[in-house]
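Document type: protein sequence-to-structure record

Subject area: structural biology

Format: plain text, a pair of labelled lines:
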Amino acid sequence: MEKVIDENKQGTSLTLEQNDSNQKKLFIESYGCQMNFSDSEIVASILANEGYNTTQNLEEADLVLVNTCSIRDKAEQTVRKRLEQYNKIKKINPGMKVGVLGCMAERLKSKFLEEEKIVDMVVGPDAYKDIPNLLKEVDEGRDAINVILSKEETYGDIAPVRLNSNGVTAFVSITRGCDNMCTFCVVPFTRGRERSREPQSIMDEIADLWERGFKEITLLGQNVDSYLWYGGGLKKDFDKATEMQKATAVDFAQLLDMAATAYPKMRFRFSTSNPQDMHEEVIHVMAKHHNICKYIHLPVQSGSTRILQEMNRQHTREEYMALVDRIYAIIPEISLSQDMIAGFPTETEEDHKDTLSLMEYANYDFGFMFAYSERPGTLAARKMEDDVPEEVKKRRLQEIVDLQRDLGLKRTQRFLNQTVEVLIEKPSKRSNEHWSGRNSQNTVVVFPKENYKVGDFVLVKISDCTSATLIGEAVGYSEMQS
């Protein structure tokens, strides 16, 4: 995986506030998307009620869990290496239990227990509430596995703990699963059908975070724009709903408006958007509220309509470009980012050139770029030959990365000599004398600490930049500072 964005590519082990009455130790590590990190907070909350405090010391753990990603083969290989390391520790500490959570657990199911024999417990994304029972199964010497997918589970009734938290930013999940059967993607098979969380439970979670001093929320889902709550049921069943249910339904634009209106001093982001489902009303709500960040992650995967059809993406190149036009017309200061796959089966040089030209048209600020890797169980793996040579994939990927780096630099340069609003999140990685935060457009901003603190909303005048970072000096607090 290649990224032109300041992101941590490694898994993250997470800690939370300790309960003195808890006697057991949990080491939990997360890989992959933001949903996995959010899910780990749910798991830690469940286990906190079972007597576990988290630890960053693997050697002292009674239970080791790894929350996994299956979106790329490289992600799975990373997890396998970590499991080997866990088992070396387990030989020294035979009482330690090891479990695999998430998408990789769902995809491989009992193979982890039957063939690999490197874990004690396998838990799919919809079965986290069953972990206490599965631990009892392990204690009694039985294999413990639950990978049953649910049509109802949203974990809306669980208050997630905030793991490894800076006390400023937090994730709030609003949907689970995905109904878009893209031919390259395992998510519908590992996370199940799409379902939306009851809006009041979302607002209650946001209220709790606000009371605890958090300043920015990211609303999460595989496809947030298809959020739809009408009193129960899957989105696909909406046409069967009663007239009363339809009249009181809440869609994503309404949910976003509710949150931004209720908490005007809190910033809101969301991820991820699917081009076929993004309605113009969402863009208008973003434009209406200063506290909704002006940034959209808008995955496209390819700039070729023919390849998009092969991927079963429900939009064309032209439709995507028209959406980009509408977004820029309504919010000229917006930042966009992309997901792009190089070397999908049958991709030609002409298709690749279409991708490069679409990138220039959309003028992306950031990119998440990959060479195609065949994922077992997907339609592409079953029906399509992986016929683009690896050296061609690598060369095309490098051209995409190089272009994104050039675009990113041009996009950050637009902020030179401008004053931007920044939420301070942490000390800079490169200098303990500087703060790091993000502006509304999701660009990292670094500036001298002075007398400011984490959680402050600060106005920063930009004097320099790289392709992914803005550099400047604070000139005062913003109006968002409460």
